[in-house]
Amino acid sequence: MFRVHIRLDLRLDSDILLLLWMIILDLGYNRLIGKIPQWLGDAFPCLKILSLRSNAFSGEVPSGLFNLSSFEVLDLAENQLRGSISTRVSNLKGLTEERRIRQDLSYGWVAGVYYEESLVVNSKGQSLKYTRTLSFLTCIDISGNHLHGDLPHEVTELSGLVVLNLSRNHISGQIPETISELHQLASLDLSSNMFFGPIPPSMISMSFLAYLNFSCNNLSGKIPYAGQMATFEANSFAGNPGLCGAPLVVRCSGSDTINKEMGNAYVYTNDRWPYLAIGLGYAAGLLIPYLLMAAKRSWSFVYFAFVDKTVDALLYLACKRTPCFGNHCDNLH
């Protein structure tokens, strides 16, 4: 293990101009220790990508990082960072605008010469290498640290965010109801924390969400298993003893209001079908003969003659079986 000391001589020469225009700083997978410098946000005002993952940085996430309005990828995963997530996270304007559909960004151009830039990001439960698609990535990954406190609702203002990974920390509180405002979010990992309370029902509208991991928390209540949420399997919700409903095998209790209302509606609808079928059959039996008679008048005489003969036959049989009438039944036949 060795310690790296970084010292900048801030002289106004061509070297500092190069630093001012730096857009990617990747120091991941090293053995860097100590605190992340506070001046980092001021030294590189054009910085878009910062990766310090898999080092041994300690202390809190410096507030100066939230001054970088052009930030698009912040990867501080697998360190020893403490403290809580600052509400100033909403200052990262590069993540608050859904502008990637209409703005073409590119990395790898230096002095008119193109070179291929790449970055490894933990997305959708696996390490993915981004090269040509790097310009379409927006990411915050602070997984594998010692963060605590609530998840501030300001995080949900980052509407251009594609990947959010806060797994393996000590973050508590409830998942913000406004989480569904992250319209472009494709990967969300909040596993192995201390979140409690219900899963926001509004998440069923997150149509871009392709990966979800809420496992190993203290979440409770019925899983809103509809819309996009119905595409996830049980392992996305495992390790939450208070959760119930599909896709888990644990059924919700009968006191669950949503379940009762849905169940009653289902039973009510199905109970009506037999009566509806009987009513339709009865109406058809009455209407069809009248429709036939209306279509051709001669058929009406045949129909009523048939009805008269049938009624006479039934009356004669009933009379014969009644001893009181005796021979008077012959007058009916």
List the helices and strands and how they pair.
Elements: H1 14-20, E1 24-26, E2 33-35, H2 40-43, E3 49-51, E4 56-60, E5 73-75, E6 80-82, E7 109-110, E8 113-114, E9 119-123, E10 126-130, E11 139-141, E12 148-150, E13 163-165, E14 170-173, E15 187-189, E16 194-197, E17 211-213, E18 218-222, E19 242-244, H3 257-295, H4 297-320
Parallel strand pairs: 1-3, 2-4, 3-5, 4-6, 5-11, 11-13, 12-14, 13-15, 14-16, 15-17, 16-18, 18-19
Antiparallel strand pairs: 7-8, 9-10
Helix pairs in contact: 3-4
CATH class of the largest domain: Alpha Beta
Strand line-up across the major sheet? 1-3-5-11-13-15-17
CATH homologous superfamily (4th level) name of the largest domain: Ribonuclease Inhibitor
Order of helices and strands: HEEHEEEEEEEEEEEEEEEEEHH
Task: Please characterize this protein's 3D structure.
- One of its GO terms (cellular component) is membrane.
- With 333 residues, the protein is an alpha/beta fold.
- The protein has helices at 14-20, 40-43, 257-295, 297-320, and strands spanning 24-26, 33-35, 49-51, 56-60, 73-75, 80-82, 109-110, 113-114, 119-123, 126-130, 139-141, 148-150, 163-165, 170-173, 187-189, 194-197, 211-213, 218-222, 242-244.
- The protein has two domains: 14-251, Alpha-Beta Horseshoe (Leucine-rich repeat, LRR (right-handed beta-alpha superhelix)), CATH 3.80.10; 261-332.
- 22% of the residues lie in helices and 20% in strands.
- The strands form five sheets. A seven-stranded parallel β-sheet has the order 1-3-5-11-13-15-17, with no helix packed on it.
- The radius of gyration is 36 Å and the shape is elongated.
- The model is unreliable at 1-14, 99-107 and 255-271 (pLDDT under 50).
